[in-house]
Each structure stands twice: as structure tokens, then as C-alpha cells.
Amino acid sequence: MTRASLVLLPALLAFTAWAPAAHGALPVKKKAPAAAEAEKPKTLEELRTMMKTYDFKNERVVFPAYWKTSELTKTLIRSEFHYNWDKPGRECATDSFPWAYAVISNDNTLCWNPDKQLFTQVRYVEIAGSTGVMYRHNPVTSAAEADTESCPGQSYMAVVFRKYGNCYTLKFITREKFVRQFFPDFKLIMDNFQVFQPKKAAEKKGPALRQDGILQ
After folding, report:
1. d(CA 46, CA 50)
2. CA-based angle 204:210:216, to the nearest 5?
3. Which residue ranges make up each domain of the chain?
4. pLDDT of 49-105, one tens digit each?
5. Three-class SS string for the chain?
6. Which of 38, 107, 52, 101 shows the shortest CA–CA distance to 76?
7. How far is 80 from 54, CA to CA, in rounded Å?
């Protein structure tokens, strides 16, 4: 290729890209770069900026948009939020892929009381305008000690607090090696959890009187 050809090559390429649109043909080519950009996989940090909200009767739960959830109900009783928790082949904490699981429940007036032989109090945390207690499950060293929510290599944290007469429990479970990876997600859920004061039922009043004194 001659030097003159090299000089003309950029102009030729520019004209080739412009020509179809100038003649009204293939207009979709204008959108191709944007479409390709939209198809690019998002990083974990980008995904963490995308959130979803579940509004219950008296509570609001904000969680990472890339997590899956149980069905939204009118009243919060027990809702599950997870990432890769239901992946086929999961065997407790022996999985090599990252996974996380959270449960938020309204225990009404009965607070969950963790077994002191299994859980250790870690610290107090501010959540939904109240002070809660964070517990951590003691390490499980053998399969014989395992149960449905804890097993060797697994991290299990729980926060308990009371608000407006109800007692709430938030449980966060993942593999120990993934705690640092998922703690920002756990913190997002804790920081954005809201509880609203229940609306009092309207007081029953007697029948109203019209101006002429007749009962309505």
C-alpha cells in the first residue's frame, strides 16, 4: 500500500460509514454501537448501583437488583432474598461459586432468641431507626454439627431489633470465603430497611346528623 493510500484510508472509511445513512438505507446501523454497549456484561460494582424495592404493609426492603426474591406478599412475615442460592448442585458451604442468602421476618411480638451455645453477640447496630443486636453463628467444625442454616465453612449473621411493638430478624448467610464480597450487599439491605408506624384503625363514630336533625 502506497503512502498516498494510507493518507486516504481514514477518509474512505469515514465515507463508507456515513454513506448508507446518507441515502436512507440501513438506519439501524446508527444504533448498533449503543445496542452493543447495552449488551456488555455489567460489573459487580455496576450491578450494586441497581436496586429493587419491596413495599409491604408497614415495611420497605431495598435489595440488590441482581438478587432473586421470594414472592412479594402484602404483609411481611418471612421473605427470602438470594444470589445463586438455588444453583443446582449446591452442597452447603462446599460450593466453589459465590452465593448469598438473606431472610427478613417479622416475628410480631415474639423476638427470636438465639441459642447462646450456637451464637455469639457481636455488636449493636442501628437499623430502621432502632438499635438492634448482631449475632454471629459460632464456627461449625464438623458435618455432625451442621443443620439447615449452618455447616462447615459457612458464615451466618443475624440482626434482631424491635420497632413499633414488632420484632424483626434479618439473617445473612454465605460461605465464609465470600463474606467480604457480599457484605456490601448485606449492608445495603440493613441500611435501607424501613419500618413505618402502623396506621391506627379509624375510630367508630355514631351516625351523623343532617342539618335538619335527621340521622344520615
Report:
1. 7
2. 50
3. 44-195
4. 789 999 999 999 999 999 999 999 999 999 999 998 877 666 666 677 889 999 999
5. CCHHHHHHHHHHHHHHHHHHHHCCCCHHHHCHHHHHHHHCCCCHHHHCCCEEEEECCCEEEEEECCCEECCCCCCCCEEEEEECCCCCCCCHHHCCCCCEEEEEEECCCCCCCCCCCCEEEEEEEEECCEEEEEEEECCCCCHHHCECCECCCEEEEEEEEEECCEEEEEEEEEEHHHHHHHHHHHHHHHHHCEECCCCCCCCCCCCCECCCCCEC
6. 107
7. 11
Q: Going by C-beta distance under 8 Å and a sequence separation of 6 or more, which residues neighbour residue 191?
A: 127
pTM: 0.70
What nine digits make up the cell of 172? 445473612
According to DSSP, the residues that pair with 194 across neighbouring strands are 60
CATH code, 44-195: 2.60.120.1690
Q: Which three cell numbers stand for residue 212?
A: 335538619
Residue type, 157: M
Rounded to whole angstroms, the Cα distance separating 155 from 141 reads 12
Asked if 188 and 63 count as a contact pair (C-beta separation under 8 A), the reply is: yes
Half-sphere exposure of 39 (CA within 13 A, CB side): 6
89 φ/ψ sector (left φ>0, alpha ψ -120 to 50, else beta): left
